[in-house]
Amino acid sequence: HLVESGGGLVQAGGSLGLSCTASERAFINYAMGWFRQAPGKEREFVAHISWSGSMKYYEDSVKGRFTISRNNAKNTLYLQMDSLKPEDTAVYYCAATLRIGVQQSGKEYDYWGQGTQVTVSS
What we know:
By secondary structure, this protein is mainly beta.
């Protein structure tokens, strides 16, 4: 069970931090990802982090602006978003996968949160 929080409204150029908390202690066994879906668009991959946090991967448009991290002791995944742009506006989802390696397809993830809205105004 995954629960996202931290979404909201921010001006372009601003920052926002998202959290995703897992209710299961097995959180440490899962690699995690962030996805987003804008109105009228398909869900897209944003970032991925391995179970240990040692490997991170980002979609090109967010590289250098977004940072994915995790705290396994707190069963929590994070996404720090800086230099936000209006095109980052979307519902953001966290997801968990047991598959090894970077997983950019939502089909490879086993569990999903309910999503949190991020709106960036111009």
